């Protein structure tokens, strides 16, 4: 392996600082959204979207999976299946618990 190939997949300090600054900026946007009045559905959608972007940046750059397509697929596909299964297992409980709440809540 030549030095050029190792440098290509390793990333540089400048790149990691830009990614870190991007993550910091996304976190600042999330904190700002907590203080302004937005409809709940819109705010949750924006926060979930920003969280997904942050997760992708962390996995791609800080877990060094940007250049490892097979490893990225092997991490994301089982996670997606597990989250989907857990959603379908626990989501019906939310309807059962809705009937147990006191009136007015």
Question: What's a concise summary of this model?
Answer:
This protein has helices spanning 3-10, 13-35, 40-62, 69-100. It is an all-alpha fold. Helix 2 runs antiparallel to helix 3 (40-62).
Explain this structure to me?
This protein has four helices and no strands. The chain is mainly α and 105 residues long. The longest helix is centred in the C-terminal third of the chain and has 32 residues, at 69-100. The model is unreliable at 1-7 (pLDDT under 50).
What descriptive keywords fit this protein?
single chain; 105 residues; mainly alpha; 4 helices; flat; disordered N terminus
Q: What order do the helices and strands come in, and which of them pair?
A:
Elements: H1 3-10, H2 13-35, H3 40-62, H4 69-100
Low-confidence segments:
1-7
Give the amount of beta strand, in percent.
under 5%
Question: The biggest beta sheet, please?
Answer: none
In round numbers, the mean pLDDT is 81
Please estimate the helix content.
over 70%
Q: What does the overall shape look like?
A: flat
Question: What is the structural class?
Answer: mainly alpha
Q: What is the chain-wise order of helices and strands?
A: HHHH
Distance between the termini: 64 Å
Tally of helical segments? 4
**Rounded to an integer, what's the Rg over CA atoms?**
20 Å
- Which quaternary structure do these chains form? single chain
**How many beta strands in the DSSP annotation?**
0
């Amino acid at each position: 392996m030549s030095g050029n190939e190792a440098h290509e997949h390793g990333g540089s300090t400048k790149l990691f600082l830009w990614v870190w600054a991007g993550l910091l900026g996304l976190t600042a946007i999330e904190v700002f959204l907590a203080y302004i009045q937005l409809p709940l559905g819109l705010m949750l959608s924006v926060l979930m979207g920003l969280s997904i972007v942050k997760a992708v940046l962390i996995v791609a750059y800080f877990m060094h999976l940007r250049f490892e397509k097979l490893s990225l697929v092997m991490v994301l596909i089982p996670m997606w299946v597990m989250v989907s299964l857990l959603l379908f297992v626990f989501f019906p409980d939310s309807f059962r618990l809705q009937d147990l709440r006191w009136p007015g809540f």
